[in-house]
Design brief:
The structure is a single chain. This protein is an all-alpha fold and 114 residues long. The chain contains four helices and no strands. It has one domain.
Length: 114
């Protein structure tokens, strides 16, 4: 069994466009590009489905909304990371204070044992 190959978007678009043209059968395109005919059919369907969005005004708004969502997600993940770091630091501080109380030590007065 062979390895799965990953094809970039330009390759998929080129093959799907050839399939939409209809000058060759899917089997001929599969032989030419080394891809299974079913895969070419899926790429062709996706191209035909998403092509109208490319030329619509809604597509521009969707791109803008997507960029805003990605920016918000990035901000959220940065804040979440900072909060988790603060929580870890807080937990460590609570542990140190608890140990100090158990050991009867004053704040920051840990003596080395010789």
């Amino acid at each position: 069994m062979g390895k799965r190959r990953r094809h970039d978007g330009a390759f998929k678009a080129r093959v799907a466009l050839e399939a939409v043209k209809g000058e060759k059968t899917l089997a001929e395109l599969a032989g030419q590009y080394g891809v299974h005919p079913n895969q070419i059919g899926q790429w062709r369907k996706k191209l035909l489905k998403e092509l109208p969005v490319l030329f619509s005004e809604r597509g521009k708004h969707q791109d803008k909304d997507r960029e805003e969502m990605e920016a918000e997600l990035y901000r959220h993940s940065s804040v979440s990371f900072a909060l988790s770091k603060l929580k870890i630091d807080r937990d460590r501080l609570i542990t140190v204070r608890f140990l100090n109380v158990l050991l009867g030590l004053q704040r920051f007065t840990i003596k080395a044992i010789n």
